[in-house]
Amino acid sequence: MATANPEPNLSRCLLAGERFSFKNAVSENGTQCHLTLSANGSTLLPMRIPSQGWSKEEVFQKLEDARKADLAWRGGKAFAYVYDGGAEIEEVAKKAYASFLTENGLDPTSFPSLLRFENELVDMARTHLNGPEEVRGSFTSGGTESIILALKAARDLAREQRGITAPEVIVPVTAHAAFHKAGHYLGIKIRTTGVDAQSFRADVAEMAAAINDQTIMLVGSASGYAHGVIDPIAEIAALAAERGLLCHVDGCIGGFLLPYFERLGAKIAPFDFRVPGVTSMSMDFHKYALAPKGASVVLYRNDDLRRPQFYACASWAGYTMINPTIQSSKSGGPLAAAWAVLNYVGDSGYLEIARKLLEAKNALVAGIRKIPGLTVMGDPEMSLIAFTSETVPVFPIADAMKKRGFYIQPQLAYGPSRENLHLTIQPSNVPWVEELLRCLAESVEEAKAGRAAYEEAKATGALFAEQLAGPNAVAMLPGLVASLGVGGGGAMPSNMADINALLNALPRPIQEKLLVFFASMLFTPQREG
User: Fold this and answer.
1) What pLDDT is stored for residue 452 in this prediction?
2) 192/207 Cα distance (integer angstroms)
3) What is the pLDDT of residue 511?
4) Residue 115 half-sphere exposure, CB side, CA atoms within 13 Å?
5) Per-residue pLDDT at 14
6) Cα(80)–Cα(428) distance, rounded to whole angstroms?
7) What is the DSSP string of 120-183?
8) CATH class, 95-341 region
9) pLDDT band at 501 (very low <50, low <70, confident <90, very high)
10) pLDDT at 288
11) Can you tell me the distance from the alpha carbon of 54 to that of 51, in angstroms, rounded to the nearest whole number?
């Protein structure tokens, strides 16, 4: 997608009003926002399989060319998305992954190697999270699948034992969006409750008040992604046990690393199977265990709790199907790679990695607190930090940091959580702590200097929030997405602060619809004539 040259001011184009189209929008004052669906405006041609196959050299060269615009994570300056353990761990992971790429996890009797890897990984997770021998689990493609399966098992168990037909799960507003996705897929109502406005930990009294005769499960995070803090798991689990409910602990991001922090002397309240009342847990290997994506595990206190997770079907003419997890056919690559990495790094290796991460987290928290105008949100136990400001616009800080080579993640405001910036600290980030703090201080000053333009974008967002509150909101969304600079193929504008300001001002239901249109345009082939 191309825009006019010179690039128009986003705010002025958006303030022009309702006259949007996928081709162009012209404001009352003549400002033009040209939008085309191809780089040169030529006839769009469909993609086809090449008539003659490329050589191996051509294929691999085009693969390398395709990643040129990707996030540059290998240098250690990306504080999101990737968990980089270094070249040696990556080599082990890739070789193991490739070695079992074509083995199929559909039938464990045909590939007993994969069954062995899974049972061993599940037992490693059980012991790591202090589970008794009765704990059972499954290897999954990621935290979202682990969470979906935990809720599916809870739903089916409640249906069988209690006759529940309209199940509800209670989660804090800081719980991962995967719970809302699971509820959407499974027909479970996700009832959200508040958190403390300073610590961002779940308010257990609100959870207690939200329980009704359709409640099947309470949820706590260890830790939450947004702020890196651990919910009061012991209190949540005790409440669940008192009311005869299940209790799931989402340890997808923190479950693997927090036990090492605890061994290193950090103050970490028990959150795992040591806590009576915890009935299931999720934990990712593809985060701080440094395995390739997707590698996660869901654990249950006993097999009676796990069994409803499984699905079997003999009511068709083909092979009898039994699936422990959502996928049927699945590559053995992620399973073999996770098994290889955990055995390669070993407990002592992970403990040393954790030591460096804990030191980096503490240094960054202290350093951010020293930068005038910035506030660390809560007191993070995990190597996840969110920081905000009441005096400096935070979204322009992210753009300024990107110009300095650092990627940090914007987070929109929700509930008691102001708009903020988020750091996920992973091993390759550790050497960059001092440089990040220096660049962050410079970026804060740059954001202060650019406040006027940002305030204009905020005003735009407020205007659209009003316009999109009406009955024609959905009809306006495609034009709004197009005016943000997104089209077929999904080239993104370099300045994201204005877009984040706009999103931050929109009502959440409209924001979600806008994001769907946005994603739909991203996942559209860019065809060139």
Assistant:
1) 75
2) 8
3) 80
4) 9
5) 39
6) 11
7) HHHHHHHHHTT--TT-EEEEESSHHHHHHHHHHHHHHHHHHHH--SS-EEEEETTS-HHHHHHH
8) alpha beta
9) confident
10) 98
11) 9
**Domain boundaries 348-452, corresponding CATH code:** 3.90.1150.10
Token duo for residue 446 = 């740059």
Positive or negative, the CA dihedral 323, 329, 331, 332 is positive
Distance of alpha carbon 505 from alpha carbon 201, whole angstroms = 25
Give the bridge partners for 140, in sequence order: 296
Which pLDDT belongs to residue 1? 33
Collapsing DSSP states into helix, strand and coil, what is residue 430?
helix
Cα separation, 271 vs 254, in Å, equals 10
Q: Is the pLDDT of residue 26 over 50?
A: no
Structure-block tokens of residue 463:
């205007």
Taking the C-alpha atoms of residue 523 and residue 98, their distance in angstroms, rounded to an integer, is: 27
Q: Which residues pair with 378 in a beta bridge?
A: none
Q: What is the DSSP letter of 431?
A: G
* Block residue for tokens 């659209």: 464
| pLDDT at res. 201 | 98
Q: Which amino acid would we find at residue 260?
A: Y
User: Which DSSP state fits 6?
Assistant: S
Do the domains 95-341 and 348-452 sit in the same CATH topology, yes or no? no
Instruction: Please answer whether residues 249 and 281 qualify as being in contact, where contact means their C-beta atoms are separated by less than 8 angstroms.
Output: yes
- Per-residue pLDDT band for 463 (boundaries 50, 70, 90) equals confident
Which range of 63-72, 104-113, 187-196, 500-509 scores highest in mean pLDDT? It is 187-196
Place of tokens 């193991």: 96
Say if pTM beats, i.e. exceeds, 0.85.
yes
Q: Give how far Cα 11 sits from Cα of 4, 22, 178, 451, 506, Å.
A: 15, 17, 33, 14, 15
When pLDDT is averaged across residues 475-504 and rounded to a whole number, the result is 68
Is residue 104 within 8 Å of 332, Cβ to Cβ? yes
- Tokens standing for 152? 């599916």
- DSSP secondary structure string, 250-292? E-TTTTTTHHHHHHTT------STTSTT--EEEEESSSTT-PP
Among 103-117, 200-214, 236-250, 261-275, which stretch is predicted with the lowest mean pLDDT? 103-117
Name the residue type at position 86: G
- Give the residues across from 219 on adjacent strands: 248
Return d(Cα 189, Cα 164) in angstroms, integer. Answer: 12
- Residue 470 confidence (pLDDT): 67
Residue-range domain boundaries for the chain:
10-47+476-522, 95-341, 348-452
Edge-first strand order for the sheet with 168-172 is 136-140, 296-300, 280-284, 246-250, 215-221, 168-172, 189-193
**CA–CA distances in Å: residue 253 to residues 143, 176, 383:** 8, 10, 10
